[in-house]
Amino acid sequence: MGRLEGKNCIVTGAAGGIGLETCILFAREGANVLLSDISASALERAIAKIKEIVPEAKKIETKISDVSKEADVKAMVEHLDSWGGVDVLFNNAGIMHADDADAIDTPEKIWDLTQAINVKGVWFGSKYAVLSFRKHGKKRASVINTASVVALVGSATPQLAYTASKGAVMAITRELAICHAREGFRFNSLCPAPLNTPLLQDWLGDDVVKRQRREVHFPMGRFGEAIEQAQAVLFLASDESGFVNGTDFVVDGGMTKCYITPE
Ligand code: NAD
C-alpha cells in the first residue's frame, strides 16, 4: 500500500478497460486521481465504482475531455494546478475503429480520426504535462503512453491506421524520454497484447473464427486482462521505476517473443 502516496495522477480513457483498472490501483496506492474520458455517463459509473471498492480513496474527481482537442487537454492538466500540479499522466485513451482495414480499404476519415485521438492526444497530453511539471517545479514525474504490440509485430488481420498510430506513440515516447531525462521527467510506453476489454471484445463479438485467429498466437492460451496492464502502469508511475525511461514496456504473456505456441 502507499506506492503512490501524495502523487497527483491523471488517467485518460479512464472510464473503462485498462484506464479504470489503473484508476482503482492508483486510488488504492494513495494517489489523488483525476479520471478523464469523453463519456460523461461512463465516468459517473467509473467514479461510483472506485468509491465503492476503495472507500479509503483520497481525492478522486472526473473531467470530461476529448484528447484530440487541445483546449480540452490543457483544461484537464490545468485542473490539477489547485492540487499542486500533476506528477503522473497516463495517456491511455485510444480507439480502434471498426472500419479500419488494410492499405486499400481504410477510409481516409478513419485514418485521420485514429491519428487525431491516438497520436495527437498523446502529444497534447505530453505537452501540457511537461508545462505543468515545470510550472510546479517537479523534480521527478512520470508519463506513460499506451501503445500496443502491433507497433512491434506485423498482423495479417490489418488495422493500418491503428498500427500506424501506435508506432507513432512509441516513437514519440522514446524521443520525449530522451529530451526530458535531465529534468527528471520519465516517459515510457505500455505495449499491451490483445485484451479482454470492450475495445477488442465488442469488435470480435460472437465471431468464433475471428477470435480463434487471435487466440492461437498466445503462448499462455488466453487474452490478457486489463488489471494485468494496470499493474505494469502502477510500477511505471511509481518511484520504484525511477531508472526506467524510454522503454517499450511489453505486457503480452510472451506473445511477441513466440515462434510456435504450445499445443
Ligand atoms: P476501452 O475501449 O475499454 O477504453 C478506452 C476509453 O477511452 C473509453 O472509456 C473511451 O470512452 C475513451 N475514449 C475514446 N475516445 C476518446 C477521446 N477522444 N478522448 C478521451 N477518451 C476517449 O479500451 P482499452 O482496451 O482499455 O484500451 C485502452 C488503451 O489500450 C487504448 O489506447 C488501446 O488502443 C490500447 N490497447 C488496447 C488493447 C486491447 O486489446 N484492448 C491492446 C493494445 C492496446
From TrEMBL:
Protein name: Short-chain dehydrogenase-like protein
KW Oxidoreductase (keyword) present: yes
Coiled coil: none
Superkingdom as given in the UniProt entry: Eukaryota
Keyword set, alphabetical order: NADP, Oxidoreductase
InterPro entries linked: NAD(P)-bd_dom_sf (IPR036291), Sc_DH/Rdtase_CS (IPR020904), SDR_fam (IPR002347)
Family stated for the protein in its record: Belongs to the short-chain dehydrogenases/reductases (SDR) family.
Record bears the keyword Oxidoreductase: yes
Pfam families (alphabetical): adh_short_C2 (PF13561)
GO-annotated molecular function: oxidoreductase activity
